[in-house]
Every structure is written in C-alpha cells, then in structure tokens.
Amino acid sequence: MTYLQEGSQAPAFTLCDQNGQRVSLNDFSGKKVLVYFYPKAMTPGCKVQACGLRDSRAELEALNVVVLGISPDPVTRLKKFEEKDELNFTLLSDEDHAVADAFGVWGPKKFMGKEYDGIHRISFLVDEAGTVAKVFNKFKTKDHHEVVLDYLKQL
Q1: Where is 15: in which H helix or E strand?
Q2: Does the first or last residue of the chain, that is N or C, have fewer Cβ atoms within 10 Å of its Cβ?
Q3: Annotated catalytic residue, options 25, 46, 78, 126
C-alpha cells in the first residue's frame, strides 16, 4: 500500500454525504481541506477522532480549513453517526472504496489475527490549489485534531 505523498495533486472526487447530497473536492476551491479517512462510523476510535474534530471546528474554520471525513459506510450509517455524536462537518460515503484507492489508503490490515482489506486511518491536508500539503499518518485517535491544529498553526 502506497498512499499519496506531500506535493502530490489530490485526486478529484465526488461522493454522497450523510444527507445524500453529492459533494466534490472541487467545491472547496480556495480553502484548505482536511480529508480524513476512517474505518467505520460509530466505532469507539472513530467516534473519539470525529468528536475531536467536531470540537475543533471553530479553530479549523479560523484557519480556512474544511473537514471531510471519508469511510466505506453507507449514507444511512453516516447520518446516524452525525446525529448520534452531533457532528458538525461533512461525512462522505465511499462504499466501493474508489476514493480510498485513489489516495492509496485502502489495503491489507490485521485485527485480532485476521487479515483483510480496509481503510487505513490517514489524513491529508489539501491546500487551496488542490495539492497535498501534509500527510498525517502518525497520531492517536484522541489527539488527531491536536496534531492537525499544531501543524496548521505553524504555517
């Protein structure tokens, strides 16, 4: 598995959000976009990560950053995740994992001795020009938002 590196052009994509509306990366031209991939809505680690981003929304917006969370979950599950955890950002459904493939985050994983293919928890900061400015691949779910904010504040 080889994921996109800093300096790469982010792949253009359009996916359905938690409300069934089509959302494209191009919709956010002129803004920085945190594209974060997570394995499954409403699981403990994904909830902690999402709630950290939810609680950081004002700081992220002040830094001209929009958050897009992408998982292979269907739209209906994303809607439940949004409502249950009062999420305030866009969740996108990548059921066929085409976008995860394009970013290079779909691949072999191990869990409890079993091997399977799935999404790796990696985030990409896409700059205003559509280039991957930063790859976040070393963080704990509980401090993901802090790692992102610390980087953004150094810019």
Answers
A1: strand 14-17
A2: C
A3: 46
